[in-house]
């Protein structure tokens, strides 16, 4: 046994190795990404680790491994579960042979997501059990228990860490990695093929299993009753740590019900808890999953307070302060006086595209190319380039979900005949869910232009490889799929590839593609600026600056700011010598020089 400081995601990965996992597949998405990255970095022989093309593919790969008797792991963030939901709902009926854990990281806040959806509700919808760790230490142990539970009930099992658990760090007692659970191989079984008659029977069996699992959860240490008193507090996930600390600080008598498996709720432990209190406050992020189950179990005999009663916030991430204030109100304690010298709120710093980001050049070229069109609509997608919606670029009119930019553009083009739709999509997102949209545009003959922003990585989540990079998750070489070849294979007749920093050529290419009748595409290809070394050259503003402010107002590069007189100044440490600003300046006052390196 060794002790190591582990991030929550690292603890989940190491816990899976301790359980003998042999196949792990996922798609990068904050806050889940480091689970697969840890497994790839450890690179344990006999363990297959992959970044799959999307979450649906990842879940199906993990399910296939579990069919053959291996222990498998599938990882994603909460919105990725939407992509994987089709196979998931059928998999809950079919079941698995080897243990299968689906680690879905939720993002209360949300800090880096389109939605705040709660995976525990999805688990209930799919009739699958869910483990909800409160800390990295618990996550490490929970994932091992989850594999045993999965094999006992022949079902995939959810692990639902939230952002604070995923990215917190703690001392974790690590056991020696277990022997990789030997897969006894795929055996032909009629139940591997889902048909209506089988689904009908398995659905009934699955409903019965809910009660069996609820009784089994009673014996787990993750579910326990602590403290004393007739005031009850039921807590799930990381909120348990906030509540425990707040109760200690307040010195209050509270009966604390720690719920580590929020669905299905432990049967006897829940009944014992409700029988011991006069009222209950439920503290959980995000949906009232525990609260609604307690309301049913209490049957009006014990008041259950929480989100439905307005005693807890219905959305957003909880904090120690939020939980403490809720407990003070619930327990009827006097409100503490506010400190007069409390620190002021920090200013909001909205995210921006990096200085030298090739996406800025692509967006600006498209804006220039679209001048003269009666109506240009810019459909965006999920990635760094979503930040192109901010002023002064204002180049993302829609953003729905992965791959939707291409298909939304088609719907807008069909309904608004005056609109010329340009759909922006990143290279990783193109492989994830962009290709079917391209095929649909070609098949339906819809007049749109797809602009693939190819920076040769999955930049937003930490530069993971994808099918176009020529690298696997562990850094080994892989076949590199060519986006231009794929677009042509999908039937796109007009395809061109440009360097977005060759501004005149990029404007010309986008204009020609937009004027082409039918589906067309431009690939704007340049590496992510965060992955390349800054060049020896740098841009600077000479004495010819006329203080027009155009370089600042047109492209919004964070390396360019006006001084007190209105003259443009380029911050040399931020400048990447991309040269976009020199195309914007109307008087050629931006020159190139050597970077002063001390």
If you had to describe this structure to a student in words, what would you say it looks like?
The protein is α/β, with parallel strands linked by helices. 37% of the residues lie in helices and 17% in strands. The chain has four domains: 2-215, 3-Layer(aba) Sandwich (Rossmann fold), CATH 3.40.50; 224-331, Rossmann fold (3-Layer(aba) Sandwich); 358-531, Thiamin diphosphate (ThDP)-binding fold, Pyr/PP domains (Rossmann fold, 3-Layer(aba) Sandwich), CATH 3.40.50; 537-594, Alpha-Beta Plaits (2-Layer Sandwich), CATH 3.30.70. The chain is built from 19 helices and 22 strands. It has a six-stranded parallel sheet, with helices on both faces. Strands 9-11-10-12-13 form a five-stranded mixed sheet, sandwiched between helices. It starts with a strand and ends with a strand.
């Amino acid at each position: 046994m060794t002790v190591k400081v582990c991030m929550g995601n690292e603890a989940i990965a190491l816990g899976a190795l301790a359980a003998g996992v042999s196949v792990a597949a996922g798609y990068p998405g904050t806050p889940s990404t480091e689970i697969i990255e840890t497994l790839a970095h450890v690179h344990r022989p006999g363990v297959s680790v992959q970044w799959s093309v999307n979450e649906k593919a990842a879940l199906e790969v993990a399910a296939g491994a579990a069919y053959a008797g291996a222990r498998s792991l599938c990882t994603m963030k909460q919105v990725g579960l939407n992509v994987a939901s089709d196979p998931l709902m059928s998999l809950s009926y079919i079941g698995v042979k080897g243990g299968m854990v689906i680690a879905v990281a939720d993002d209360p806040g949300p800090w880096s997501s389109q939605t705040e959806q709660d995976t525990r509700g999805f688990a209930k919808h799919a009739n699958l059990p869910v483990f909800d760790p409160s800390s990295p230490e618990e996550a490490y142990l929970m994932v091992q228990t989850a594999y045993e539970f999965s094999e006992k009930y022949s079902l995939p099992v959810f692990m639902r860490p939230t952002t604070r658990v995923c990215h917190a760090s703690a001392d974790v007692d690590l056991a020696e990695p277990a022997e990789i659970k030997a897969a006894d191989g795929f055996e032909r079984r009629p139940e591997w093929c889902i048909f209506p008659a089988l689904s009908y029977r398995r659905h009934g069996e699955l409903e019965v299993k809910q009660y069996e699992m609820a009784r089994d959860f009673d014996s787990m240490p993750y579910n326990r009753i602590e403290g004393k008193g007739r005031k009850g507090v039921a807590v799930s996930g990381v909120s348990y740590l906030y509540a425990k600390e707040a109760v200690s600080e307040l010195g209050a008598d509270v009966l604390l019900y720690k719920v580590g498996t929020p669905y299905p709720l432990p049967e006897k432990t829940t009944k014992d808890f409700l029988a011991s209190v006069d009222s209950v406050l439920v503290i959980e992020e995000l949906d009232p999953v525990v609260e609604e189950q307690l309301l049913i179990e209490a049957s009006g005999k014990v008041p259950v307070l929480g989100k439905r009663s307005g005693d807890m916030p219905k959305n957003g991430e909880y904090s120690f302060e939020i939980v403490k204030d809720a407990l003070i109100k619930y327990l009827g304690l006097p409100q503490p006086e506010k400190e007069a010298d409390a620190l002021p709120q920090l200013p909001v710093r909205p995210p921006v595209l990096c200085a030298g980001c090739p996406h800025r050049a692509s967006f600006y070229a498209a804006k220039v190319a679209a001048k003269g069109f009666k109506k240009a609509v810019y459909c965006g997608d999920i990635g760094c380039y979503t930040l192109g919606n901010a002023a002064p670029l204002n180049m993302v009119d829609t953003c729905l979900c992965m791959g939707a930019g291409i298909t939304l553009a088609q719907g807008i083009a069909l309904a608004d005949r005056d609109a010329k739709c340009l759909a922006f999509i990143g290279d990783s997102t193109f492989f994830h869910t962009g290709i079917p949209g391209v095929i649909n545009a070609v098949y339906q003959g819809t007049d749109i232009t797809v602009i693939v922003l190819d920076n040769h990585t999955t930049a937003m989540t930490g530069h993971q490889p994808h099918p176009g990079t020529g690298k696997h998750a562990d850094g080994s070489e892989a076949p590199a799929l060519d986006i231009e070849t794929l677009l042509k294979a999908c039937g796109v007749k007009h395809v061109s590839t440009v360097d977005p920093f060759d501004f005149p050529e990029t404007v010309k290419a986008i204009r020609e593609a937009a004027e082409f009748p039918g589906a067309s595409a431009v690939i704007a290809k340049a590496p992510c600026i965060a992955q390349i070394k800054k060049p020896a050259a740098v841009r600077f503003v000479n004495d010819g600056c006329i203080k027009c402010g155009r370089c600042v107002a047109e492209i919004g590069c964070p390396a360019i700011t006006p001084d007190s007189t209105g003259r443009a100044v380029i911050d040399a440490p931020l400048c990447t010598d991309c040269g976009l600003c020199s195309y914007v300046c109307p008087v050629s006052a931006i020159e190139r020089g050597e970077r002063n390196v001390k």
